[in-house]
Amino acid sequence: MLNDTFLRQRMVRELVEERGVKDKRVLAAMREVPRHLFVREHLMSQAYQDHALPIGGGQTISQPFVVARMTELLEVETTHKVLEVGTGSGYQTAILARLARWVYSLERVPELAHEAIRRMRQLGILNVKIQAFDGTVGWSEVAPFERILVAAGAPSAPRPLLDQLAPRGRLLLPEGDRHRQRLVLYERLSRGLRRRELDQVGFVPLIGRHGWEEEPPR
Ligand code: SAH
User: Fold this and answer.
1) Which of 80, 117, 151, 175 could make a disulfide contact with 86, Cβ separation 3.0–4.6 Å?
2) From ligand 1's centre to the CA of 184, what distance in Å?
C-alpha cells in the first residue's frame, strides 16, 4: 500500500514548489489529486517521482512539474470554461477540474478517452466532459473558452483553437518539431493576439487536421 498523501506532499514540495511554482491553488490541487490512480498498477510506485510515465498507445502522463508549470501559466479562475486537448490519462484534466468551473477535454485515442472518463467517475469529478476526437479542430459547440491547454506538441497553434478563445482568453501549447518544443502562451487582447515563448519541453506530437500527420507505419 502506498502512503500516497505523504508521497504527494513530498512530490509537490521537491518537484514542484522548489522549482519555482508558487500558485497556491495549483499546489493545493497537486496535493489532492491521486496521481497513482492515473497509471497502470505496476507503475503506481513511480507515480510520485519526477518523470513522465507510459499510459498505453505510445502516450505518456506528463511530468508533475510540467503539469504544475503549465497550469500556473494558464491562470485558471473558478468561473472559467477550459478546453484541454490531449486528455491522455486525465491527470492534468483532474487538476484543471479543481480550479475551473468546467473542463472540456479531447483525446484522439478512444481507449485513453474511455479510461479517463472512467477515472473521473471513480474520483467523483463531475465538472469534466471528455470526448474522443481530433482536438486540433477545437470544440465549437461549447466555445468560446477562457482558457485552452494543449498537452501535445504542435507545429504551430491550430487556427480553430485561436478562434475559439474568448476575449482576454489564454491558449498555452508546445510549439516546435515532433520531439522538442517551446511552450507558447497566446493571449487574446482587444487589438489582436499577444504571443510569448517560454520553457523548452518535450511532448508527444499533436496529430490531426491542424497538427502533424500520423507517422507512417514502419
Ligand atoms: N496531460 C496528459 C498527457 C497528455 S499526452 C496526462 O496528464 O496524462 C498527449 C495526449 O495527446 C496523448 O494522449 C495523445 O493521444 C493526445 N493527442 C495527440 N494528438 C491529439 C489530437 N489531435 N486531439 C486530441 N488528442 C491528441
Assistant:
1) 151
2) 17
